[in-house]
Structure formats: C-alpha cells, structure tokens
Amino acid sequence: MRYASVLLIVFTVMLASCGKDGVPAAANDTPTNLVVTAVVNPDSSGNVTFTSTATNAVTYSYNFGNGIFQANVTGPITYKYPASGTYTVNSTAKSSSGKTTTASIQVTVTVRLSLVWSDEFNVDGPPDPTRWGYDLGAGGWGNNESQNYTSRPENSIVQGGSLKINLIKENYSGSPFTSARLLSKDKYSFQYGRAEIRAKLPAGGGTWPAIWMLGSNISSTPWPACGEIDIMEHLGNDLNKIYATLHYPGRFGGSADGNSRVISNATTEFHKYTLEWSATSIKMLVDDLLIHSVTNTSSLPFNQNFFFILNVAMGGNFGGVINPAVTAATMEIDYIRVYQ
Predict the structure, then answer these.
(1) Could you tell me if residue 172 is inside a domain?
(2) Measured on CA atoms in the order 305, 311, 314, 320, is the torsion positive or negative?
(3) DSSP 8-state symbol, 113
C-alpha cells in the first residue's frame, strides 16, 4: 500500500506539470506579441523612455544602440543618450523559463550640449594650477625628442588672452631646447562629450606641437592599453598638415589609427580643433571639417575618463630633422572647452 501511494503522488505531479498533449507547460511560454514604444523628451536632454509589453514576459532587456545595455527591466525605463543621433534599440522579452523574443525600434535623439569645463586663458601669469600641472625633464620621452620640459614662465605663460607654450633654443641641463608640457591629470578628466581648442601652431623644421589626451588609468594600465587620443598634431617639416590619431592595443606607434587634413595658415592664424566622442564613435575635426572618424566599441579603451596634454616637442621620431635656424617657436591656445 505505501509503494502504491508513492506512485500515485508522482503520477499526479507529472500530470500537473504537463500542458496540452502531454507537452510540459514551460515549453509553451515563449514571449509573443512583443511591442516596444519610445517617448523622446522634447527638451533636448537626451532622455528617452522605453516601454515594452509582451505575453508571457516577466522581464525585459535593452540594447540602446550605442553599446549600452540594461537587463532585468520590469517596467518603463528612461535612458539618457550622451550624444545626438539615430539609434536602433533592441528590446528582448524573457519568460519565466528563460525563453526570449526580440523586437527593435529606431529613435532619433537631439542632445543639447552644455559647457561643463573650460580654460579661457584670460588671466595673465602662470597657467591656472587648479587646472594644469607639468611633465618635467628630458630623456627623449620615448621618441628621441630634443627638448627639456620645464615649469618656467619662459616656457609657459598666459599673456594677452592666450596660453603660450614657448620652445626655446638654449643649453639647459644638457638639452639643446626647452619647452613645456601641461597636463590636466588629477585635476580634470572626462568621458564622452565635445572638446574644442582654438590654437595657432608654431613653424620651424623639427617643431612638433600636440593637443592630445591619455586614459586616466595610465598609472595602472600602461600605454597603449590606457588609450591615446591625438586631437591635433602638426609638423614644422610638413606645414599645414593636421594629424588626428588614436593609439590603442594593436594600433599604436607606426600602426596607429589616424588620418590627416591639409588646411591653410595653420601657423599664422587660429583654427578650431575638435574632438566629438561618444560610446559609439570618435571624431576629430579642424574648423568643423572631419579629419578622422573611428567606431568606438566596448573592446576599445575609449570608454573611460581621459585627461588633456598640451605640449611642443622638438625633433624626434615624428618631429623629424631640426632646422638649425630655429631659435624659438610658440603654440598659442586661445581657449579649451568641454561640452557634455
């Protein structure tokens, strides 16, 4: 009798867990009738509210079309896009047994950027110490360069509404040139947005001015794994050609990911150099003309905070042959602004 009772209980449980025609009920709970809606906030904030509904669904996951994901959503969700664009958003409905169904919707978002940080270089004297520090010394800096970087006012000074980084031909601690390399490391860094720098570049064979960025994790993640964004580089031996380049694992040094554009009067007039950076793309421009564009992905190191570097190097592997007639050269920066 006890054995028969056990069999009856097991048989009853098996019947309760089966659906029509003896098929387990869980096999029939694939989500159906998935509908995704999106409401774009008209205030240009970038906020979009998504709502998904489906039969048999218990949670939803979203791919917002820019490399950002959100899982286990049970109701409406609002996501703030950091940049304007048209995005294809995938919503995946999941049942209690883990079965899924996916549907897509396309949204066009306009994001109004706001100024979040700047240096207008309007106060005469040394560069603002709350915004800028210095790299100091010689040694070639990994590129066989000839300058010795100092923090002296002779090499970097704010004067007449602009920052002046001065390369000087002089014997200084065994180096034939002095210059300055300013950086915002540990003072200001950011992730994503638009950076604009208005600058006039130095002339003279061997000069190598640069406006660029490094990943803030460089102390724990050495170059090139930290990532490098060269917004602008220029060579005195190749006047008016503006280089824009990314360095990262697999694409660095001589194999870096970059391009160039020729402009007029780079060394006699101010021009605007721009970085447009989001989770999906990185663009470098001069006077709003594209120099180079790269698709950003989660596998690249460009999804973290970066800091600015401003410097004028002399000679080296990229700067090239130094013209002995060059005794001084200056990069002037009118402003540097970050919008998000």
Answers:
(1) yes
(2) positive
(3) -
Residue 263 maps to a domain: yes
- Pick the catalytic residue from 145, 228, 276, 332: 228
Alpha-carbon distances of 165 from 16, 121, 154, 210, rounded to whole Å: 80, 12, 9, 11
**pLDDT tens digit sequence for 278-293:** 988 999 999 999 999 9
What is the per-residue pLDDT across 184-204, written as a single tens digit (0 to 9) for each? 999 999 999 999 999 999 999
- Helix (H), strand (E) at residue 8: helix 2-16
d(CA 227, CA 269): 30
Residues 166, 43: Cα–Cα separation, whole Å:
45
Q: What are phi and psi of 39, to 5 degrees?
A: -120, 110
Range of the domain at 101: 24-109
What is the helix, strand, coil percentage profile of the chain, to 5? 10, 50, 40
Looking at the structure, do residues 275 and 180 belong to the same domain, yes or no? Answer: yes
Region label for 177, one of left (φ > 0), alpha (ψ between -120 and 50) or beta (otherwise): beta
Separation between Cα atoms, residue 276 and residue 295, nearest integer Å? 12
Please pick, among 145, 233, 276, 332, the residue that the annotation labels catalytic: 233
Q: Known catalytic residue: 233?
A: yes
What's CA 126's distance to the chain center, in Å?
Answer: 29
